[in-house]
Amino acid sequence: MSAWANELAPEPNQLLASLPSAEYAAVAADLESVYIEHKQLLSAPDEPATHVYFPRGAVVSILAPMEDGHSVEGATVGIEGLAGLPVFLGDGSAQDEVICQVPGPGARMTAERFRMVVESSPALHEMLHRYALALMGQLIRTAGCNRAHPVEERCARWLLMTSDRVGSDEFSLTQEFLAAMLGVRRPSVTVAAGLLQQAGLIQYRRGILTIRDREGLEQSACEDYRLTREIYERLYRQ
Hints:
By secondary structure, this protein is of the alpha+beta class.
């Protein structure tokens, strides 16, 4: 079971679910339920964000574009947070590309309305500050992980983090997309995923990834998975 699966009802998104009931009701009134498609672009560098997104089963990636046209993942966002922090922290123009990696449900709000809602919701304002710090922690851990750890450990970490953010141990995935997110060649991911599958930790069939042995997969992952998870657990314990 995903680490946060017990948090899924009644509001799947943890950031929204952490709000006091009165403030949640006020925020929810401006939310539009949407289905976020695979590879859907939510924001692009240097372009004003039109909406902020609260995933409720979808998972999106914050990508760092490279000059050669490739992109490397800096962080993932799912049921623990939102995509659109530049609307809260700055002028609303993103510096990175945000794209959906796992399709699923979500909710969105216009950037203009979001700014107004934040001003009238002290709890949401405080939570967004704390969430921004948590996301920074994830970015730092991802950068260190990409530099220091072998592909198999990074692959296990990515699968676990995605599972947490989907809220399920089963989700759609292509090896091509996973390779792009890890910034490695597809054969390297094929070998790494094959070793995890041979060990009985995962099952990959027809584009669907299933975690069969979560404890074993956590043991195969680098320490950055545990440390990143603890960052968000502290966030919502507070």
